[in-house]
Design goal:
heterodimer; A: 557 residues; alpha+beta; twelve-stranded mixed β-sheet; 22 strands; B: 322 residues; mainly alpha; MetI-like fold; 2 domains; 0% strand
Chain lengths: 557, 322
């Protein structure tokens, strides 16, 4: 049993007036400033934890609720999300929270089970050779407009997402992929180059993948914009009412053929209601009063309040979020490896984890966590060492008063993390300016223009194959200011051509070793993703993006 | 009078043009590309070709002035365009959300008037008494308290402590009046209270001024009941400035709705504006601001006209001016 910490004692009686007032103040400030994204909690994100580069399975969650028991049928599940769904069109969604919604009515082609690919709309798949994959669809699948699900639909969906006019977030993975409808239910993928990790992209809808299938007939009749208002796909639920910024209602699809592992017909629930509630404090109040059943964007600081209430529980997905400091690698003084090593030794990660995850997470160790099969517990990590930090600072030849700047998000825990980074660096004579910015400003100023030395980043840790995650963290295309990363790019290229998982793991290990040696990033915190829920809600699973949930097997007792 | 009204109506498009152009320039001056807001951090996975194509499709490569006049041209044809964020039809989105914000605004105004006018009148009648002090303090509280903070207090009391009301959501009053009132109770109180403070203060000072008039003394000398003196003679004649204030409060009401709708998860025009600002969704924000501008202008015109209807002296002065 976990010992009671300060936060629990403080919040045991439920939400306090002081906390409410604090929340109100923060809410007001957020409204004035315009809140940005989050990862380990924030209250209003459109993109912050969209799983850029995250992979893997979603069933690594640690339910802190009571044992599930036998599933029951029926009932309505009311689920909170903090921001409006960006696109209902499952090819164009761009928020990390969208898959919770779009997986209801658009099941991806494949699934992720325990870190491994599993069947979904695709019943069987075969890697014919290094550049050819066969995908065999289940028979009897029907889109909600009544048209059958065929290999032509697979071809249509993948080709549509490859079209730059659509703006599918993962379009890049479809470069050099040719799709043929070989038979009615058999699609063949031919790659220009070997691609050992492509199939993982089919186990997730946008923004983390390209796995969503749409009805070609419906799309051709409606066009892009009307299709977005009323998308036609196939999944465990059907759309009854779609209000991207309000309450959307989904009803069980009686024709859904996929069953639970125990053979039960899915879904168990009659209806799912997705309700947009922007303010975290209001969502917590709704959860406490029974207005909602699940909040899958939950802050760790609210966990004690939930655990203090008998009918509420928290579903914890450990290590699902990494919070790290990105570095401009070609801009003095952060172009100096010695200086970057000084920074890596300068942070007391235990303190960060204690303050910002309330003991539910841990110190950042590196890019990978136990959620991926590629994780290596013997990989080297940095921890706080004042002496070494000072030695490396001296080696870098930097005097007291070195000025740096860092950008972070406007919402969630990020501004406070920024302040702690600032405080810890002050001990070493580094004068850090912290700018809290909205997502588009961060993308423009930090990523594109390279105007910052440091950037506080957060997002889903890889759950499954970490290729995309490592690429988005270390590849040339995503470096602040466009710093070239030829060694990393070559290793990533090699990984794509390596079909043996163990061999690929070694390549990923080389990338992680390079990150350690060169300090490309400073890994600060491993935070969990959290879902607060009523105890009578069971069967909640995290999707591989880490910030979205699969509700297809959820049920209420 | 007629020429005055025509002149005011002709001024409206000019004001709307100035407001929307200023907003357009300010929005474009803000850092943060709408394309990056639209695609979020998936930018890191999007290739330049896709980003360039999206920018071209949205017309963002054109100079600002060209973009503005393209937008204005579409507006004149009755088309507010499509949202950058989700490509939804903005006109339709606004039409869908008007009843929501209207319900919030009308009920809030009703609460504000129902609290403000009687309380202000009582404070004036009981001048310098404890009641007057209490009402004045209440008015100051209403004016000073930020409505998001007051909203949180209401949630703590009525949702967490008493478990009487839902903390979020919206139900149309014609769909289910009881559920609608439950959902509206806290937002309307929070928004209405802040407005009631101003109304209360203006009512008090206006009634006080009227109570010192000769005709009030005459009414009392005639032996009329005090209630009749206050309600029929004092209050009626003191309402003119109060009507003006209620009209002018509309701007505050719409501004307040932005906060309140976000707080209580009400999918109205205020929340649409907030979402548009965060997402650098220029067309959606322009659409909402254009609507708000026109509503404020029209209500101000109606207020001025009602002034003339309520007070013949004003009507005559309009006539003299024209």
């Amino acid at each position: 049993m976990r010992s009671e910490n300060y936060w629990q004692r403080r919040n045991r009686k439920g939400i306090s007036r002081r906390r409410l007032i604090q929340a109100a103040g923060l809410a007001g400030a957020a409204m004035v400033l315009g809140a940005g994204p989050i990862a380990c909690g924030g209250d209003d994100d459109d993109a912050g934890s969209n799983g850029t580069g995250s992979n893997g399975a979603g069933n690594n969650s640690t339910p802190r609720s009571e044992a599930d028991g036998s599933p029951k049928r029926g009932g309505t599940l009311i689920v909170r999300r903090p921001s409006a769904t960006t696109f209902a069109d499952p090819h164009r969604s761009s928020s990390g929270y969208d898959p919770t919604v779009n997986h209801l009515y658009a099941a991806p082609l494949l699934s992720m089970q325990g870190g491994q690919l599993g069947p979904s709309l695709i019943e069987e798949w075969e890697q014919v050779d290094e550049t050819t994959v066969n995908l065999k669809l289940r028979s009897g699948l029907v889109f909600t407009d009544g048209t059958p699900v065929t290999a032509e639909a697979v071809k249509y969906s993948l080709e549509r997402q490859a079209d730059p006019a659509i703006g599918a977030p993962r379009r890049a993975v479809l470069k050099g992929v040719n799709v043929e409808a070989t038979e009615e239910l058999l699609a063949t993928l031919k790659f220009d180059q070997p691609n050992a990790t492509f199939l993982e992209s089919l186990a997730m809808n946008a923004p983390g993948g390209v796995g969503a299938l749409i009805s070609p007939t419906a799309h051709q009749q409606m066009g892009d914009d009307r299709f977005n208002e009323s998308p036609v796909s196939v999944g465990p639920f059907k759309i009854e009412k779609l209000a991207l910024d309000g309450e959307s209602v989904f009803v069980a699809n009686p024709d859904w053929p996929i069953t639970a592992p125990n053979g039960d017909k899915l879904p168990y629930l009659d209806r799912v209601i997705i309700k947009v509630i922007p303010e975290t404090a209001v969502a917590v109040a709704e959860l406490q009063s029974g207005g909602i059943d699940v909040d899958y964007v939950f802050l760790s600081e609210n966990v004690p309040q939930i655990e203090a209430q008998d009918d509420l529980a928290v579903n914890l997905n450990k290590g699902a979020i990494t919070q790290r400091i990105g570095i401009h690698l070609s801009k003095p003084p952060t172009d100096s490896v010695a200086f970057r090593k000084a920074l890596a030794y300068a942070f007391d990660r235990e303190e960060f984890a204690a303050v910002f995850t309330q003991g539910l997470g841990g110190p950042g160790r590196g890019p990978l966590t136990e959620l991926t099969w590629a994780y290596d517990p013997s990989a080297p990590t940095y921890s706080y060492d004042e002496k070494k930090a000072r030695e490396h600072l001296a080696q870098a030849g930097l005097a007291d008063g070195t000025k740096l700047n860092i950008n972070t998000y406007t919402s969630g825990v990020y501004p406070r993390i920024g302040e702690m980074i600032q405080a810890q660096l002050r001990k070493f004579g580094i004068d850090l300016t912290v700018d809290n910015l909205e997502v588009p400003v961060i993308v423009e100023k930090y990523r594109r223009n390279g105007e910052y030395w440091l950037g506080l980043e957060g997002g889903g840790a890889p759950q499954g194959d970490p290729y995309q995650y490592l690429e988005s963290n270390f590849g040339t295309s995503n470096q602040p200011g466009g710093t070239p990363m030829p060694e990393i790019d070559a290793l990533l290229e090699k990984a794509l051509r390596t079909f043996d998982n163990e061999e690929r793991k070694k390549i990923y290990g080389e990338i992680i070793q390079l990150d350690y040696d060169q300090v490309y990033k400073i890994w600060l915190i491993e935070a969990p993703t959290l879902a607060g829920h009523r105890k009578n809600v069971h069967g909640l699973e995290w999707l591989r993006s880490g910030s979205a949930m699969d509700l297809s097997a959820a049920w209420k007792s | 009078m007629t020429s005055y009204v025509i002149r005011r109506i002709l001024q409206m498009p000019v004001v709307a043009l100035l407001v929307t152009f200023s907003l357009f320039v300010v929005m474009h001056a803000l850092p943060g590309d709408p394309i990056y807001a639209m695609i979020g951090e998936s930018e890191s996975t999007l290739d330049e070709e896709t980003i360039d194509r999206l920018r071209e499709d949205l017309g963002l490569n054109d100079p600002i002035v060209v973009q503005y006049f393209n937008w204005m041209g579409d507006v004149l044809r009755g088309d507010l365009g499509r949202s950058f964020r989700d490509r939804a039809d903005i006109s339709q989105q606004i039409i869908d959300r008007i009843p929501t914000t209207l319900q919030l605004a009308v009920l809030s105004l009703a609460v504000a008037v129902c609290i403000g006018v009687p309380a202000g009148t009582i404070a004036a009648v009981k001048r310098n008494s404890l009641i007057d002090v209490g009402v004045t303090l209440f008015a100051m509280f209403g004016i000073a308290v930020p409505n998001f903070w007051f909203s949180m207090l209401l949630i703590w009391l009525f949702v967490i402590t008493l478990d009487w009301l839902p903390a979020s959501g919206f139900v149309g009053i014609w769909e289910d009046p009881v559920a609608a009132m439950k959902h509206m109770a806290m937002p309307v109180t929070a928004l209405g209270l802040t407005l009631s403070g101003s109304i209360m203060r203006y009512t008090r000072s206006s009634v006080l001024e009227v109570l010192n008039q000769d005709y009030i003394r005459t009414a009392r000398a005639k032996g009329l009941a005090e209630t009749s003196v206050i309600v029929r003679h004092a209050l009626r004649n003191s309402l003119l400035p109060v009507v003006t204030i209620i009209g002018l409060q509309l701007g505050n009401l719409l501004a307040g709705s932005v906060i309140i709708e976000t707080m209580f998860a009400i999918p109205g025009l205020g929340r649409m504006a907030i979402t548009a600002i965060r997402g650098r969704d220029y067309p959606s924000l322009q659409g909402v601001v254009l609507l708000f501008t026109m509503v404020v202008l029209i209500v101000n015109l109606i207020t001025d006209m009602s002034y003339a209807l309520l007070d013949p002296r004003v009507r005559y002065s309009y006539g003299a001016t024209s």
